């Protein structure tokens, strides 16, 4: 009975010892540093560049230092390092382990067999070597020694596939125009000044020009009604006098108008006007009738009076530009319109830019 119990106890101790040894072995393996080096090809021509990849797997907390070579520094006699690539990092075992990869660009200008010794990588100051040597063969370019004067001509120009897209160009122009509009509206909204409207104010027409035009229209109009004819003619003259001399001739009688005009000392011109005004008063108030020749003579006298007293400016006035501020309601309305329009244009611009970038990416894909 005691012998069986001892045998069972020894078995349990052996199993426990095996488990402890396996755990220690796994811990040692997990903390092990592994360095690997390989080339993407072992056979290449003189001057051709190949990649030498060095990988180091270590604990995530350990510091790994790869060897660094200057450009054109020899890795081994006859093999030069062109470039030391950047280091790529990959996490392993849920972040407990780390794998670092560095690619060296190498070349050779002598045809021969080369043996690259194991790479040295320092981990926490301790040097580790990669497994085994790396053998490469550099081949020479075949040359026809029997015909040294024979040279092949240059190759023809190779047509590269290229497609011109007007869509990308037009979308880019549209984006630029929309962006410009958004910037201009944003600048205007940031300005506290009132919104104004631009108006072109035409200069006033000279009084004699208006009067001559009206007389020409009366001349061409039918002359069936004598009273209407003289009323239109005298209204034209009264308006001309009021604008030309600056007194309210429309509200004055004939005698009052003549009294004001006598101060100008142009009796010949006033005589022409007096005849027309007196004839018109007789027609309007005394039911006087006139013949066609008298009506034509009155028209000519009115025209002569305007021509004799007209005042022509030395220089014709030019149209002027005025800015009129909008009302408060219109100010608020147009500012809200600009806000909404700028937001919509900004969103549309971003969408068009994204679509244009997508088209550019597809053209290069």
Could you write a compact summary of the structure shown?
The protein is an alpha+beta fold and 365 residues long. The protein contains 8 helices and 13 strands.
Distance between the termini: 82 Å
Give the quaternary arrangement of the chains: single chain
* Structural class label: alpha+beta
Shape: rod-shaped
Strand order of the largest sheet: 1-3-7-6-5
Low-confidence stretches: 1-7, 22-30
Return the average pLDDT rounded to an integer. Answer: 81
Q: Give the tally of β-strands.
A: 13
The number of distinct helices, counting runs of at least 4 residues, comes to 8
Order of helices and strands: HEEEEEEEEEEEHEHHHHHEH
Quick one: biggest sheet?
5 strands, antiparallel
Radius of gyration, in Å, reads 54 Å
Helix content: 40-55%
Strand content: 15-25%
What does this structure look like?
The structure is a single chain. The protein has 365 residues and is α+β, with helices and mostly antiparallel strands. Helix content is 47%, strand content 22%. A hairpin with a 4-residue loop joins strand 6 (79-92) and strand 7. The protein is rod-shaped and about 140 Å long. The two termini are 82 Å apart. The model is unreliable at 1-7 and 22-30 (pLDDT under 50).
């Amino acid at each position: 009975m005691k012998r069986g119990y001892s045998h069972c106890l020894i078995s349990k101790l052996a199993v426990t010892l095996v488990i402890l040894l396996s755990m220690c072995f796994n811990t040692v393996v997990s903390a092990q540093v592994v360095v690997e080096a390989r080339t993407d090809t072992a056979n290449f021509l003189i001057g051709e560049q190949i990649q030498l990849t060095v990988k180091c797997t270590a604990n995530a907390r350990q510091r790994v230092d790869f060897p660094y070579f200057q450009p054109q520094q020899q890795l081994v006699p006859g093999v030069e390092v062109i470039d030391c690539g950047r280091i790529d990092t990959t996490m392993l075992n849920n972040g407990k382990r780390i794998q670092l990869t560095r690619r060296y660009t190498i070349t050779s200008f002598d045809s021969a067999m080369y043996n690259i010794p194991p790479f040295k990588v320092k981990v926490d100051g301790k040097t580790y070597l990669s497994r085994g040597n790396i053998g490469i063969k550099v081949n020479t370019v075949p040359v026809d020694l029997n015909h040294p004067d024979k040279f092949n001509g240059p190759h023809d120009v190779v047509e590269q596939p290229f497609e011109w897209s007007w869509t990308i160009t037009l979308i880019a122009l549209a984006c630029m125009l929309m962006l410009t509009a958004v910037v201009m509206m944003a600048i205007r909204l940031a300005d506290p000044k009132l919104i104004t409207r631009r108006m072109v104010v035409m200069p006033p027409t000279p009084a004699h020009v208006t009067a001559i035009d009206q007389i020409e229209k009366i001349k061409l109009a039918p002359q069936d009604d004598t009273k209407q004819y003289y009323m239109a003619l005298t209204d034209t003259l009264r308006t001309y006098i009021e604008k030309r001399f600056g007194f309210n001739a429309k509200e004055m009688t004939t005698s009052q108008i003549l009294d004001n005009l006598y101060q100008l000392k142009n009796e010949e011109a006033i005589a022409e006007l007096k005849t027309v005004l007196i004839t018109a008063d007789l027609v309007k108030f005394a039911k006087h009738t006139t013949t066609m020749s008298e009506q034509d003579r009155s028209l000519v006298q009115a025209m002569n009076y305007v021509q004799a007293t007209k005042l022509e400016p030395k220089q014709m006035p030019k149209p002027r530009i005025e800015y009129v501020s909008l009302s408060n309601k219109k100010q608020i309305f147009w500012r809200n319109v600009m806000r909404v329009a700028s937001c919509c244009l900004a969103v549309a611009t971003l969408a068009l830019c994204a679509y244009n970038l997508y088209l550019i990416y597809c053209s290069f894909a």
